[in-house]
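## Example record

The block below lists the input lines for one assembly entry, exactly as stored, with component labels intact.
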Amino acid sequence: MLSIRSIALTDFGPFKGEQRIDFPPDTGVSIVYGENMRGKTTLLNAIRYALFGKVITRGATQVALHQIGNWETAKEKGKYGFKVVLEFEHEGLKYQLTREHRPRSGVKTPETDMDYQQDCFLRKDGTVLGPDERDSELSRIMPETVSRFFLFDGELLQQYEELLRNESDMGRNIKEAIERILGVPVLTNGRSDLSELSKDAQKREAKAAQKNQKTQSLGNQHEALLRQRDGLQDETDRLKKDLESLRVSKASQEDLLRSTEKTKALLDERTRLQDEITNGDARLKEKEDRRKDLLGVAWKGLLKSRIRSTRDSLEQELRNNRDAYQRALISTDMADNFRKALDDGQCSSCGQDLSEAARERLKKIVAEALPKEERAQTEATIQQLESRIAALKQSEASSNADVLEEVQNAIDDLKIKRATAEDRLTDIREQTKNLDETEVRRLYSEYEKTLTEIGILQAGIKKQDEALKGINENIGKVEAEMAKFADTDLDVERARKELCEKLKALFAVAVDSYRERLRARVEKDATALFLKLTSESEYKSLSINDSYGLTIVHQDGSSIPVRSAGAEHIVALSLMGALQRNAPLRGPIIMDSPFGRLDEVHTTKVVQSLPSMADQVLLLVYESELDPKQARNELKGNLRKEYRIARRSARHSDLEGIS
Amino acid sequence: MTPGQELLDTIEQIRKEKCPEVSADLVKQIVMIERDFTDNRQESYKRVSLAIDEYLGNDRTSTKADV
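Predicted structure tokens for the full assembly:
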């Protein structure tokens, strides 16, 4: 386990001259207090610089190293350069790591990184190691890929959120780093080495077979198949590499897209509004044409009451004519009988003689009966009346004011909608006038392209894998044939191949099994720590996903889908503690402003739990984030050392021990 | 149990169940090589190959066959 004993800085950032922090050998928490812009993050970076030769900002961007030296020293003394000496222990051995940047010979005023030369020395129990051994030793003690779990800042918190998105490439990268700290690559690398050795052994077997006359043909066949397989494998590997690089591109494109989401939403809305206006205009034109047609007959509306009254009187006339016609029809039928009765002088039904009065009545009825010509004329009058009434009805219908009103309302609605859309469009145009739309559109188009390419590559890899499976089956058949022949060399190579294959299979199973165990243990330990840290009593546990992302589980069994920045922080700390507890690779936790998002209750709980999270913890905090009295009360005997970063000037800070 | 020990225990348990004929020492040796050279794949490959050769009782170098 890596345990830091001291850090000595020379002209590093605001730390002018030589400044030093010592850490006691006992386990516990040390604290460095410093207000904003005094140099807390610089201290974290000094450790990063010593270990990896890098200084990064919160955005994970590397800082140009020529900007690191103390400005006042350079200005006052004309002295450039900076140095960090880190003393630490690991597996019972003492190490001293010195990394220094100094101007190249002949450069008086360095202006770029190229004007500096870097020196790095690692002393192991007093012996200076050579460059290769130094790098190998450092990467064994503290691999850069896992440094994020030891050098802890706000950036890490944001990255943890990615773990909850299984499909996220950033999440995949962090998952890899987590597995690295948990030791999974010990098994995955073993599986990979053994797989290569197994292939190597197959080639040896083919060579051995070729040397024997009996197996020569099989050996040749075997060798050809292996070559074919290698070709396919190379192609598959190339595709996988391309896929990996596309996934990395996708991750960075997603980051960029997230930052342009608002712009994209505005541009999309602008397009939508423009379409809405175009479609609205077409509908408006349609409605206006309809209104024009309606207005052509609208005058009829003014005559509506007169038409109605004319129609009423015509209808009355029609009724009268129809009645008269009906009566005339009946009279005509009866008139024939009455004429006969008048001629006979007696009733045609009862045979009685007609009285004078009866004869007179009959003569009148007979006189009223319409002759045929007149009947036809009445029919024509009725028809004429019917068609006039129909025409008047048509006029009344075509002057329908209700329809006209409806059309007018639709036109008004469309105009209001258009005006609203125009207003919003003007707003959006104003908001987007200085934006590089082409760039945003290009980003989205690139992203779509990347997604398509990923799909194509995945399909290609699937095809290659199927072909590989077929070839491996054929290789198996040839090897089975070769196994039928006894040959010393062949037997030796076969034994090697079989051992490698068994080992490879063993490591492959172990990878899955170890991952499963780890996930269960990380989930258990993170839950235990989370329950200590959270103030919410209804939260029951944390649930882990395949990427080691943790979700809060409520006591009713449901997941808490969205969590606050504070909750995110607590979950991230719980994961960090669980990783430390389960990692074969262990070291100090150095936290830069870890309580900024937390309230007092959570801050207290986190401070109380720090000693159980790692053997050595270094906090870099400002006093309003963690009150020194509160820290002393909560940590008690676990508080090892306290320092304060004192301001001398904007470009000069000193580290002072607090007694 | 330390996390490092857990890794060894996991693989040992599987070895006992799935392939007891494979040497426990050899497996442990490979795990230790991979642990010590996690970030140096060339070295780990070379050393694992050598360990297998030694186990098989031959001292040939473990460079890839010249195909």
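Chain B has one domain: 3-55. Chain B touches chain A at residues 2-4, 6-7, 10-11, 14-15, 18-19, 21-22, 26-27, 30-31, 34-41, 43-45, 48-49, 52-53, 55-56, 58, 62, 64-65, 67 (CB under 8 Å).
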